[in-house]
C-alpha cells in the first residue's frame, strides 16, 4: 500500500468517439441514402439478393471495419486501454520507457529474449509521471522515482519519520518479493547513495540535497491457501478446480504488494467460480493484516474438489 492515490482507470468512462458498430443500422442508412438519391431503387433494394443490395451490404461491412479500426486507434491512444508498443509510445511522451527486468541472452540455446516490464507496471508509472518532473522531494515523487530505478522493483513506499529523513521500502519482482542486496544497491545508486547506504553522495539529480535517504527491503509474510470446493452435479470437476486455482492465484498476485491485506472473503470470492456450490477455506484461518512495509506472498495453493449430493 503506497501513499500515492491513482485514478482507477477501469472506472474512466469510455470516450464518446468509440462507437459500437451495427451492421443493420449502417445497411439501412445506406439504403435510405440511395433511395433518396434515386427512388427507382426502392423496389430492387427490397430484395436482399439484388446486386445493388449486395453492393450496399459490402459497403456496410466495410464501414463496420473502418469503425472498428477507428475504435482500435482510439483505444491505442488512451492510457487505460493502450497495450504493448502503443503503450510504449504513450509513455515516451513523458520521457518514460519500459524497463528491462532481465536482459536478452542471444548466446543461449535457444536464444532468450529480454524480460520486460509488464503493461500494468508501465501504465502505473505513466500515471505518476508528473511527480517525476522535478526532484523526488515529495513522497509521491520518491515513489515514482523508486519504481523507475530498476525493472525488478514491483512496488515502493516512501515515508518520512523525521524532517529531511526518507525511508524507502522496496518490494521485488523476484521470488517472494524480498529485495536482493543487488537491487537495494541499484536503488541507492539511483538516488545518489553509496552502495552500503552510509553516504549521501552529491551526484543525484533526483534526491534533494538536504534529504537523507535509506533504502530497505519489504518484509515478507508467507501464507498458504488450502480449500475444498463443492461442485454442482454435471460440470467437469477438473476444469472447475483449475479455474478456481487460477482465480485464487490471480487474487494472490494482485495482493502481492506493499500493505495489501489478504482476506478470507477475497479468497472465497476467487474460489467460488461458476459451477461451485460451496467453498470451505481451511487456510489461511483468518485475515492476514499487512503493514505498509510488508507484503504477503502465497507459497502454495491446494484445492480439493467434491461433488455435492443432491
Percent helix: 25-40%
Summarize the main sheet: 3 strands, mixed
Strand and helix order: HHHHEEHHEEHEEHHEE
Count of helix runs: 9
- In the sheet with the most strands, the strands line up as 3-4-5
Organism: Aliidiomarina sanyensis
Domain Baseplate J-like central: 135-216
Protein name: Baseplate J protein
Domain Baseplate J-like C-terminal: 223-304
Explain the overall architecture:
With 310 residues, the chain is of the alpha/beta class. The protein has three domains: 12-76, no CATH class; 128-217, no CATH class; 221-307, no CATH class. It is 35% helix and 20% strand. A three-stranded mixed β-sheet has the order 3-4-5. The mean pLDDT is 90. This is Baseplate J protein.
How do the strands and helices of this protein lay out in sequence?
Blueprint lengths: L22 H15 L3 H5 L5 H26 L7 H9 L7 E3 L12 E2 L2 H9 L11 H9 L5 E7 L5 E8 L8 H10 L21 E6 L1 E13 L5 H19 L8 H8 L4 E8 L10 E14 L3
Parallel strand pairs: 4-5, 6-8
Antiparallel strand pairs: 1-2, 3-4, 6-7
Helix pairs in contact: 1-3, 4-5, 8-9
